[in-house]
């Protein structure tokens, strides 16, 4: 890269670190560190939710799918995000905010002790934390692929560079640093993506060339569903993302908890849904058009990087690389904050009883230490990502498949229709769902990607709802939690009072 490109990347890293240092002054306790003290404006949390929802995998794994199959990547990978987040704006976003407001929780899993019991909370916490290590590892590996193409930097060094910079700013500033850097990243990435789209349209012959592009693409590239991406796969993916993007991915629940009211949380989710509907189409247009402009790319995962190097002027190449960094750093830092919240608020108090009455200073110190450990472990796993199926294998095959068993008890437990589903339903659905995943993934030869994703999801959903219907577990405390998060809106004079936490 030219020195101007390196300057753009260096300036990006410097701005991220300065935001982290500025955010440090806004963090006085664990509530500020994990939920921004409930003071974040809805537009900031909406952009933060959106930026935290996908990473540089868009420019690596998903760009490869766009190069090989065409527009199907937008249909199955991103329309479900818009749909799921839009539905969640009404079903889940206000409930997460009421949890923080009425129970003073700082972790998305903190309420599960009241709603179910301690074993259920711990099962979801431990398994979800382990899953997130692999999820974030896939994101570091994505960035390393891009760095290797742009700069020749080795995969290991690329992972270490991105991880260490992210570690510095998110450890210091908590959720405020995450949200503010994500806003800055959104602006930078927006300039880079629009520049890339502009030069691609120019290569196609201008805006009019966009209309003829679809006739010049290889056969099947304009089909909404093609190859392994079937209607069954799409249906399963929609349901998975409904749970994942409304709280199953814990960092996204934190965005709703960080707003000042349930109404703001709903507006935040609506903004994120609108961005998921529009912005991925802008990001992926170059990769979709690549078979026409660059028809002989040996490794499709390098599609976006090679196009940037070939078409963009000096300076904009570095800005584009920074924009690709932005998605990964946004998701990884927000995941690290969520995992730190779960470990320090849910796991450590259960494992170390003395941690329940920890001081504010010690609690903040523990949160930062956990953040460091999580990012470090995820970087180690990223270096060995190929042993776990590569970037797309981890994101789709592992994360999408295992997300259902972990998130179904957590999300459905907030809804009145499932208030009779107790600890037995939650733990059994979690265990059998994970068991179904391991059976089809490792015990069933030749299982399709659709089968791997569908089996744990359907198993958990059927078991959870079925046990709640056939063997209900009525509980006054669980009913109180569901009633409290279901409304009415604050200011009505009938807000539910917090109840004592179960022993």
From TrEMBL:
Gene3D superfamilies per UniProt: Sodium/glucose cotransporter (1.20.1730.10)
Subcellular location: Cell membrane
CDD domains linked: SLC5sbd_u1 (cd11477)
Entry keyword annotation includes Transmembrane helix: yes
Record's keyword annotation contains Transmembrane helix: yes
Superkingdom, natural source: Bacteria
Bilayer topology annotation: Multi-pass membrane protein
Keywords: Cell membrane, Ion transport, Membrane, Sodium, Sodium transport, Transmembrane, Transmembrane helix, Transport
Residue spans crossing the bilayer: 6-22, 42-67, 73-93, 158-177, 273-294, 306-325, 366-385, 391-415, 427-444, 450-471
Family indicated by similarity: Belongs to the sodium:solute symporter (SSF) (TC 2.A.21) family.
Protein name from the UniProt record: Sodium:solute symporter family protein
